[in-house]
Write a sequence for this structure.
């Protein structure tokens, strides 16, 4: 049996270890136990999420320079959240149509979906911006910004799912 590479994940596959080796070879037992660990406890997957998150956060920061706050509205946060919702819907639909969440598909989901898009989107900034808008005697604008962001985000994710679904059908 070969050891999986960083992007391969054979934890869902049955391990073919002969019983006498599993008892006598502590390295085999350690490897067998390590492959049963949940994804969120595996260093290679944590690293993928960390790296993706760092890149996504940097991209959102850069977007702030392209779309500065105008009339009190933080446009870069709104655009990041809507684009991220669309891309996440599209990504997850594309991945699920290609097969189970293992191997390279799992690595892509964690790096791009959880990591990059998780760092790119920011609902904590949405909450802070909403509070800021409401605190400046703009309760109506704050509520519109918050409600609009969430509802448009849901719509954007749905559109992303639909686009991925249609794109997949068109390739067949």
């Amino acid at each position: 049996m070969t050891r999986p590479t960083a992007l391969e994940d054979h934890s869902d596959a049955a391990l073919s270890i002969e019983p006498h080796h599993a008892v006598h070879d502590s390295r085999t037992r350690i490897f067998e136990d390590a492959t049963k660990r949940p994804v969120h406890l595996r260093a290679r997957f944590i690293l993928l999420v960390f790296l993706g998150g760092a890149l996504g956060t940097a991209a959102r920061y850069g977007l702030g320079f392209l779309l500065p706050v105008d009339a009190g509205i933080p446009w870069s946060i709104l655009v990041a959240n809507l684009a991220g919702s669309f891309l996440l819907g599209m990504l997850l639909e594309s991945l699920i149509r290609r097969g189970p969440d293992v191997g390279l598909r799992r690595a892509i989901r964690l790096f791009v979906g959880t990591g990059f898009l998780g760092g790119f989107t920011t609902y904590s900034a949405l909450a802070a911006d909403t509070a800021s808008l409401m605190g400046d005697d703009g309760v109506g604008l704050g509520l519109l910004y918050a409600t609009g962001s969430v509802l448009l985000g849901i719509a954007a994710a749905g559109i992303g799912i639909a686009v991925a679904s249609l794109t997949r059908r068109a390739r067949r």
